[in-house]
Amino acid sequence: MTPRSFSLVAASAVLLLCATTGCKSQADANNLSASSASASGTAPAQEPPVNPANNALSPADALKAAQAQPGPHPADDAPPPATTGGFDGHRALEQVAKQVSFGPRPAGSPALKQLQAYLKSELTSYGCKFDVDDFQVDTPAGNKSMENILVKIPGERPGIILLGTHYDTKILENFVGADDAGSSTAVMLELARNLCPQKGRYQVWIAFFDGEEATKFEWSDDDSVYGSREMTAKLTNSGDLPKVKAFLLADLVGGKKAHFERDGASAPALVSEVWRVAAKLGYADVFVDIPTSIGGDDHFPFMKRKVPSVDVIDLNIADDVPYWHTANDTLDKISAKSLAITGHVFLETVKEMQSK
């Protein structure tokens, strides 16, 4: 190994350790930044550092590097793919680790551009065809360049089953977003790997949204869900939006104590359908029959335009995800089992929708 290659590996390991377990001084800085942001209504504007070695890490290598570090690790207890319709929770966990290896990934950042290139490379390797929508938006943090990626799997009849996630992280110091939004992005990648080789009755589209997070510390209707607002406008203009039979959104789905409550802002019939499928598969203890209010997510622009939508998300901050929007949202919080359960329910729901 040359001195240069050794230094790159060492730099990668240091960054991955901070991203996985959290670096105390940076975590303390994050808490101060969050408190200041909450008071002022703005978020830190610093661009996150870019790791020059992370592109060399495969998802498996990223996970191995994280597991080689001291401290708590992600839970790699996923059921085998043969029992989850082909969805591989271990591969999904590797995809979370790969995203975390890029560091913080807010909209418009160099790290997010690296992730965008990686997502497109992975999707191409699965044989997926996809469209890319580059767009510019004015935000409270300035003009941002954003990019939606939309996988399109052909169908035999008119009609679209849409799946989706956001892949950006919130502007917070040292916030690597392992659960938000690394987990749901990993689930959508693994769903794409399973679904792209297939051709069903209806088209299946998989959306990777940019700009879901607010650039200010506090969420608002105007400063949030930039990517999904962009996509609903584009699909309205193209005439494709009325073809969407259902939109299944995933967000924060990888936690070790995952419990998905029934979002009151989602379409009730679609919520019941997804929760029925989950119960049929034996996951009634994860997809629980408890009402909740999310307050805002990428399904809101679709619901406003009368597209039946459901948000599968664990936002129980008190018990399940106390690390939400903090520097503690690190890889050790993630469970391959939770990822596999989510992916299995999505696959089975799509399968049932294809039969109708």
Beta content: 15-25%
Class from secondary-structure proportions: alpha/beta
- Major β-sheet strand ordering: 1-2-4-3-5-8
Gyration radius from CA atoms, angstroms: 19 Å
Identify the notable features of this structure and list them briefly.
alpha/beta; two-stranded parallel ribbon; 17% strand
Quick structural summary:
It contains 10 helices and 8 strands.
Please describe what this structure looks like.
This protein has one domain: Zn peptidases (Aminopeptidase), CATH 3.40.630.10. The chain has a six-stranded mixed beta sheet, sandwiched between helices. Strands 6-7 form a two-stranded parallel sheet. α4 (89-101) packs across α6. Residues 1-46 have low confidence and may be disordered. The protein is α/β, with parallel strands linked by helices and 356 residues long. The chain is built from ten helices and eight strands. It has helices spanning 3-21, 24-40, 59-67, 89-101, 110-125, 178-195, 226-238, 268-280, 300-304, 336-354, and strands at 130-139, 142-153, 160-166, 203-209, 244-251, 260-263, 287-292, 309-313. It is globular, with a radius of gyration of 19 Å.
